[in-house]
Amino acid sequence: MPSGNGWECDEQWKYQENTFTLYSFFPAGSSRPTARAYCRYVLGADTTTPFERFDQEAANADATIVETNQTRTGTLTIDWAKMDKPEVFLCVFLGTARLPDNRQLDIEVHQVAGDDQMAERVFKRIIEDLKFEDNQLLKTGAEVVAEIKGKGLGSFLDNQNRQAFFLIKDSRERAIGFTMDVLVDSGPEGRLNIRAGSLSYIRGLRPREQGTSFQCSNDLSEFVFKSEISGRTGRSGTEIIAGKDNIMTLMKFGAETDEKSYRLNPAAIPEVFFDQLLKQMLDSGKKEVIVDIIQANGKIIPVHISGIEVTKDMAADEDAAHVFMLELLDGQGFSERLYLDNRHQVYKRLFRQDNIYILERTDIGSIMEEFPEREEYILQKNQTLK
User: Where do the domains of the chain lie, and which CATH numbers do they carry?
Assistant: First the structure.
C-alpha cells in the first residue's frame, strides 16, 4: 500500500462486516483526500463474477468502464477494470483476485484530481507487491469441519435433547446473566432434522436479551439460522440461509433491511456446533486449527483454536480433562479459555476482552435463584427451547 511521499496508510488490517481492509489516502492529514487506495480481504467471495461487480460499481458511481484486463502476479490472477467520470475528474481502478477456499482480494484506487497516471501507478504497484501464502491451519480446520459433516451431527448427540445452562459472572464472581441452549435430533425423516435454540440475557443498566433458533441437515449442507436481539435501543434481527451450493445469504432486519450473500469457506461452521468442533479436534488428534465461525448476527470471524496442557495455574479444577485457547482474529482483542471434562463437554468458559467474564455450567434451578425476577420468563422460554 502507498505510504510516505504525501500518502498516509493504516498500520494494520481492520475487520468490518466479514472483510479485512487496509486503507491509504493522499494527501496525509487531509479531511478531503484527492486519492484513496483500498485492499479488502473478503472472507466470503462474491457470488457474482469480477466483471459483474465492476459493472455494478460503475453504475453506482454513474461512471463508464473504459478498460478491462487481467494481470498475473505470483500465484494470483487479478481481473481489473478502469472507470472514468470526466465531469468530476474521477478515475477509479478496480481489481479482484479469487483466492483459495472461497476467499477474495479486492483492490481499489480512486483519484479526483485528474491525474489518471498517478492512479494507474499506485494500482499497478499494489499488484506487483502482492504476496499470498496458503494458511495450513485453515486447511486443518477445513479437515475437522469435513469430518464433522461426514460423521453427521446426529452422531454427536447422546440423546434426543441435549440442554446446557450457564451462569455468566463478572471478575468479582457476581452473576450478571445466563445462557440456555438446547440441541435436538428430531430423527432421520426430516430434511432439516437437527434443531437448536438458545437464549442469553444480561442484566444491568443496559439489559440485553438475544434469542436464536437454528435448523440444519445432518451433514450441515443446509441450514437456517435466526436471531433476535432486544434492549433499550429496540429490536433487531438477522436471518441466515445456507444451501448445498455453499452460498450463505444474510438478511438483517431493524431500522433498515439489508441483504448480502457470501461463498462459505470449507472451514466455516455455525457457532451452534462449537462444542462438537472441539470434540472432533480431540477425536482426530488435531491440536491447532483456524476455522471461520458463523455467528448468529451474520458475522464470519476467523478463530484460532489450540489445545493447551492442563496446569494448576490456569483456574482449572479436578474436572478439567482438556483445555483449549480460542482467539478471535478480528483485531478486537477477544480471547477465551474453555475447560472440558472427561466426557468432552464444556463446563466452564473464561472470556477476556477489556474485562474478564466467566461462564459456569449450572442448571435451570440455579438460574432462577439468581434471577428471581425472570423466573416465569425463564420457565416459559425453557419450554419453548425444548
Answer: 8-134 (3.40.1000.10), 137-375 (no CATH)
pTM for this model (two decimals):
0.89
Closest CA to 179 of 343, 339, 358: 358
DSSP 79-95: EEEEEEEGGGTEEEEEE
CA-based nearest residue to 220, from 269, 289, 291: 269
Angle at the Cα of 108 from the Cα atoms of 110 and 130, rounded to 5 degrees: 130
pLDDT tens-digit series, residues 40-83? 999 988 778 899 999 999 999 899 999 999 999 888 999 999 99
Amino acid at 6: G
Note whether 80 and 90 are within 8 A (CB).
Answer: no
DSSP 119-175: HHHHHHHHHHT------HHHHHHHHHHHHHHHH-GGGG-SSSEEEEEEEEE-TT--E
In degrees rounded to 5, what are phi and psi of residue 87?
A: -65, -20
